[in-house]
Amino acid sequence: MVRRGLVALTCLFLSHVAFSQSTAPAAGANAGDAKTVLQEMLGAEFKLTKVTADRTDIVTPGSILVLQKDGLTMCSVTARAAPTSTYKNGKISLGFGAGLAWGMEAGDTSQIPQRKFVTGEKFWLTAFAVQDDGVVFQFYSDPYQDTRYYGQLKIPFPKHTEPPTDEVLKTISEVVTVQPDENAAASAPQQAPPPPPQQQQAIAPIPPPPPPADEPPPQPKTIAAGETKEQVVAILGQPQKVVSLGKKEIDYYPDMKVIFVQGKVTDVQ
Which of 47, 68, 178, 179 is within CB 3.0–4.6 Å of 64 for a Cys-Cys bond? Predict the structure, then answer.
């Protein structure tokens, strides 16, 4: 049993050492190789942060990651090696075997400052590698009371068989997500607001109907010689005054007088 335990610890140690040697796809990998494809997709998703050789400061900042689960253990960057937590069954933990492997590399871990990071906390990504049995990330924090921390997180493949790439990316997003680049969003060109909807043209008021045309002036009333008195009365109406001179009669109207002889018009004045 002791021999088996030593073999397991040796395997964990070798796996941890192999991390630094596998941060890029193998030179002879085929374009269709699943590990190569996943490595390239992670490279497109995450921008790495470059730190100084002594790990005390950032040289080139990359993506800011947001932790989505509690329990990620990191240690001071002054330690020779960082602890490797594991994400499995929805939880992050630093198992007993991983803790022993870390102690073999870093020395007395009880003397190394450690910190557990919880959901919502942020840090940088300095490296990642797609290995045969899972994906390993290396994180680096901002100073907490003048101490920077770093640590690793392994997302193992189920039964040491690499699942489809989209499933691996989904599992990774359960643990860490990339904070949107606020500067990029601020520098993005602002889209012009959409033009306001065209207002409906006001309906022109209906013009009033034109006034009725003036009635044509009445035709002047005319009297013809030979017409009888009855005909004249029908045309002009009753005269204002009538003067009888025997067989001659003169009927007066406002603007004319009609002379009858023996009952018929002989003259109009």
Answer: 179
Residues 195, 198: Cα–Cα separation, whole Å: 8
Tokens of 162: 């690499």
Residue 119 vs residues 48, 171, 262: alpha-carbon distances, Å: 21, 16, 134
pLDDT tens for each residue of 222-264: 878 888 888 888 888 888 888 888 888 888 888 888 888 888 8
Tens-place pLDDT, residues 34-54: 888 888 889 988 999 999 999
Backbone angles phi, psi at 112, to 5 degrees: -100, 125
What is the residue extent of each domain of the chain? 2-180, 229-268
How far, CA to CA in Å, does 114 sit from each of 79, 82, 129, 170, 257?
A: 10, 10, 24, 29, 138
